[in-house]
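Regression check, magnesium ion case 328:
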Amino acid sequence: MKIYHEKDIDMGVLEDKTIAVIGYGSQGRAQALNMRDSGLNVIVGVRKDGKSWNIAKNDGMEVTTIEDASKRADIVHVLIPDEVQPKVYEKYIKSGLEDGNTLSFSHGYNIHFKNIIPPKNVNVTMIAPKGPGAMVRRTYKEGFGIPALVAVEVDVTGDALDQALAMGKACGFARAGILRTTFKEETETDLFGEQVVLCGGVTELIKAAFDTLVEAGYQPEIAYFETCHELKLIIDLIYEKGLTGMWKNVSNTAEYGGLTRRERVISQEVRNEMKKILKEIQKGEFAREWALENQVGRPVLKRLREIEKELKIEKVGSKLRKLCGLEK
Ligand code: NAD
Ligand code: MG
Ligand code: MG
Ligand code: MG
Ligand code: MG
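Current build output:
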């Protein structure tokens, strides 16, 4: 694994370059401000007189339309939501890309799945922080940064990697470390992680355990605390100290019970299903399904959102989060 630090990166490659940050949301605002404060020549491209337009103006940024920013810039850094990128790219960005320009992203999805097909004569790069925009900005101001991934899909100028790394350094990421990856690896592992563990796996694990207790006659409030609320404490321990560190911090009973039962919960059958889900991602089947779902107005997503809202765990959870002062 190649990891780049501040001393490995020369920001000189960006000295005479104009960087257009397209979009001024979570990542757009944070990365644009950090790069500007690091002395780079940054302009912001957003929809005229939209909310972002005013926010960027108030931050003292040079603001213009997406079309104009893309035309003027040497590096176009696309930080609008992934699902609107293909349309906005076709309409406002593509025509501004000139020979030897760089098209840059913070997620590989649209390039990897060919929802965006750039012209052959531009660099295609990625610099992707491992955290939300607010953290990107806060840590930068504190004199540190969060780790990020860097990747180069196309290098026509011979210094595409240097440019992406320099943008990362300007954002503060090199103070922590910038890890080398590819568009394929970043995109496929991101989808797999969110489907199998972070979003899909975790919520279904919580639901299944909660339902088991409630069906067995235990009080839903107690079930919620044991199967959902306390999860954060355990995750925080794993985040800070690793699996071993977590085991050291729970009781011996919890440690023994957990270690001897966990493979019955996440069984070989579950692992086989994970492999199938990964295959669907790798073959582009998931991406096609999601594109189709978007084309017809997201009927499945809308229905699933409604079902989720009505779950018993959601009603009980809301009440208890109020008791804990977590929710108003
Ligand atoms: P966001 O939702 O915060 O982006 C909002 C911005 O996009 C606003 O300026 C808005 O005006 C603009 N926008 C929205 N729809 C638009 C449209 N139809 N036309 C023109 N502009 C439009 O986006 P984000 O979460 O910052 O994500 C940007 C990129 O960064 C994505 O590729 C995402 O995968 C990646 N990323 C995000 C995070 C994160 O934590 N949010 C972390 C790593 C990478
Ligand atoms: Mg240009
Ligand atoms: Mg992710
Ligand atoms: Mg994702
Ligand atoms: Mg307990």
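Comparison notes: The longest strand covers residues 123-129. The chain has 17 helices and nine strands. No diff flagged against the previous build.
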